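Table S2 (text version). Query chain:
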Amino acid sequence: MLSLAQSDHGTVAEDIATDIADVLAARIDSPGETAQGLEEEPGLFFGWSGVSVFFASYARFRRENARFQELAGAALRRDLRFTSEYGRGIVGLQDQSVNRSLPYLARGSAGVLYTTIQVPGVVDAHTLAGLEASCHSRYYAMSGLYNGTAGILAALSSLAPSESTSAQRDRLVQNLWDYALSWNGSLQFAGENYLRLSADFGTGAAGILTALVSAQTGRPAWLPTAGASVSAPAPR
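Corresponding structure-token output:
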């Protein structure tokens, strides 16, 4: 809605975005039962990190009101409660359904990493380095944007270039070819759990394409946000 309001100057889209902001702000101020769903699936696409990115984008759209940036920070802190550190300083995001931590974009530390870029100054350097470390594994189980290699690539592509992140991005681009399949003369990718070919945004070729565009441009082609995106310095 914010992107539509910004590009088309549409009052309808702006009004809808304002209504969404009011509802989400109320949930942050008085979470209780209204935040139950956000607590059950932390992360960028289903949890508080997504709310944080929305408010960071809204703050750029409504620069006259500093409260929206404060709300972005408050929402991010709620998701940070579900992070944990394990081997070699890696910080993962806990999957609430089972006892494990995830590195991925939709429900893992890669999504939280992207959020910290949009909401700078909330996360300490140690945690930021741990979130980035989760995106530096040599291989990931699947290829897709939400829960695979493409999502890790998308998150890293929003970081300011450094020797280590550039090398990992190159590795991830190369790794995507390991998942590529040829079918009827076209390039295809297997969906989640390798049950079928997928052209979907979340699990297949469409999402992988946006991650590759992001890697090439340094801008999040996979997520429309109002205002210019922010590139954070890579942690040392």
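Notes on Table S2: The beta strands are 83-86, 90-95, 100-102, 180-183, 186-190, 197-198. The chain is about 50% helix and 10% strand.
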